[in-house]
Design brief:
Glutamyl-tRNA Synthetase, domain 3, mainly alpha, about 525 residues, about 10% strand, 5 domains, binds glutamic acid, two-stranded parallel ribbon, Rossmann fold, Glutamyl-tRNA Synthetase, domain 2
């Protein structure tokens, strides 16, 4: 596939605010940035936007880095791995914003405003009582306390008194701002609906809008790929680039991830209600101690989680559904990202895990599976664990599902009563006893010779497969379904197989007399 040429090196960034755990929508934004960088030989950057100290949450930044690492999309430049464009934490970039704010004040693109929060609230209240919501904008700024409305003397006095002020952007009164969004094509917004956003707060710190644009410029960001919720801010950002006389990056606003029912944005509450995670990793809220489940802790493979996110807003234009990260990075481009919301389907998420589990080399799964059995008190070595995985991988969606199959390591004590009632006939015990004799002669006790002996036995006795195999399975596992019984018997070994068969038959006999 040919790669479109860009007029500057591709540098993209994921710019979360550390206000809590990363929602899966945030992971998808990071992922699409990562994919775009990989596809175009670019650089993927993590910038932490932490200028709003009131919303700062302890541990959130570390969580974000851990999550990206687990997902396999670590940035090339980040707070913990700085490149040439640092610092990568906005709060540490402090001294670059003030001169730029001064520049905007001098060029007339911004102005100082001394209105107190109480004064603004009073205006809001009185506007509301007359039925027209208040907005600090071209229409109202003349009647507020700012460097455009006050006399030169008043302004000089306020400056001399060092009265606290904010700096606001002077939004043009009536202008159609148009820009090309890589996903949505031409976007036009009339500035008449936009307000004079605060660029610098009274504490001297920049707001999101200013810091975001300035940082993107100095970090030489070529493409801003972010969530749809930032689309309303994009015209202001365009105007800021114009005011600074900088070339804006290309913008691309990704669609929302919707609830499974399709009605609105997917939230943490939907996850709690539907019993599925919305965060990549487990998160414990430091303020409340409340715990939220993660995909990792729910047993998802990172590649399955990422495959699911890949198709939640993008499609390859073919029938292909299964992608590794590398395959995704070759296929991905912004022109196949959808504009409308992408509906999340928790069942499909499980399906992706099932598929990726099956295509993972067994040897990669052995350590985790072994650890899992150890928690069940089963002490399987690597070869045994690998044999179990070979038998079971087609039958599970999560490694954790192995826990349900306790018969893998322990003789069953319960036997499926419904099946026994239907399928255990009066001659079944006799047949199984004969089968036991047959099995005793099999050497080596491996799947193929066991199967051959089993088949020869059926033929000799003129019996059907189901007549013998199902009772054999119930006696050994207690259940009606599972892996190949020849492989499982081989795994147990001759003695344990025959022992389980005898004990199983005895218990089933008891069970049948009782019912
Ligand atoms: N800090 C913003 C956020 O939390 C970044 C938005 C952007 O990517 O421009 O999502």
């Amino acid at each position: 596939m040919s790669t479109p040429a860009f007029d500057r090196p591709v540098r993209v960034r994921f710019a979360p605010s550390p206000t809590g755990p990363l929602h899966m929508g945030g992971v998808r934004t990071a992922f699409y940035n990562w994919l775009f960088a990989k596809r175009h030989g670019g650089t993927f950057i993590l910038r932490i936007e932490d200028t709003d100290r009131t919303r700062f949450v302890d541990g959130a930044e570390a969580y974000i880095e851990d999550a990206l690492t687990w997902c396999g999309i670590s940035p090339e430049e980040s707070p913990t791995q700085p490149g040439q464009h640092g610092p990568y934490r906005q709060s540490e970039r402090g001294n670059i914003y003030a001169p730029l704010v001064q520049q905007l004040l001098e060029s007339g693109h911004a102005y100082k405003a001394w209105d107190t929060p109480e004064e603004i609230q009073a205006r809001r209240d009185s506007a509301e009582s007359s039925g027209t919501p208040f907005q600090y904008d071209a229409a109202s700024r003349g009647s507020m306390r700012n460097s455009l409305s006050l006399s030169k003397d008043d302004v000089a006095q306020l400056n001399a008194a060092e009265a606290p002020f904010v700096v606001r952007f002077k939004m043009p009164a009536n202008e159609a701002v148009t820009f090309t969004d890589a996903i949505r094509d031409a976007v036009t917004i009339d500035t008449a609906v936009l307000d004079d956003k605060v660029l610098m707060k009274a504490d001297g710190l920049p707001t999101y809008h200013l810091a975001n644009v300035v940082d993107d410029h100095f970090m030489e960001i070529s493409h801003v790929i972010r969530g749809e919720e930032w689309l309303p801010s994009a015209p202001l950002h365009q105007l800021l680039y114009r005011a600074f006389d900088w070339t804006p990056p290309t913008f691309a606003h990704l669609p929302l991830i919707l609830k499974p029912a399709g009605n609105g944005k997917l939230s943490k509450r939907d996850g709690d209600k539907g019993g599925f995670p919305v965060f990549p990793l487990r998160w414990v809220d430091p303020a409340t101690g409340n715990e939220s489940n993660g995909y990792r802790e729910s047993g998802y493979l990172p590649e399955a989680f990422m495959n699911m996110l890949l198709l939640l807003g993008w499609n390859p234009g073919t029938e292909q559904e299964l992608f590794s990260l590398e395959e995704a990075a070759t296929a991905f481009d912004l022109n196949r990202v959808i504009k409308s919301g992408a509906r999340f389907n928790p069942d499909k998420a499980k399906w992706f895990n099932e598929q990726h589990l099956r295509s993972t080399p067994v040897s990669d799964l052995v350590p985790n599976a072994q650890a899992l059995f150890a928690t069940e008190g089963a002490d399987f070595n690597a070869d045994q664990t690998s044999a179990i995985l070979e038998m079971m991988l087609e039958r599970i969606a999560f490694l954790e599902d192995l826990k349900d199959a306790t018969w893998l390591h322990t003789s069953p004590t319960e036997f499926n009563a419904k099946l026994i009632k239907k399928r255990w006939k009066d001659d079944t015990d006799g047949i199984l006893s004969e089968l036991a004799k047959e099995l005793r002669t099999v050497t080596p006790f491996e799947a193929d010779p066991i199967e051959a002996a089993f088949k020869a036995f059926l033929e000799r006795k003129e019996l059907g497969f189901g007549q013998v195999l199902l009772p054999f399975r119930i006696a050994l596992t207690g259940e009606g379904g599972g892996p190949s019984m020849f492989a499982f018997a081989a795994f147990l070994g001759k003695e344990i197989t025959l022992d389980r068969l005898n004990k199983g038959m005895a218990r089933i006999a008891q069970q049948r007399t009782k019912s």
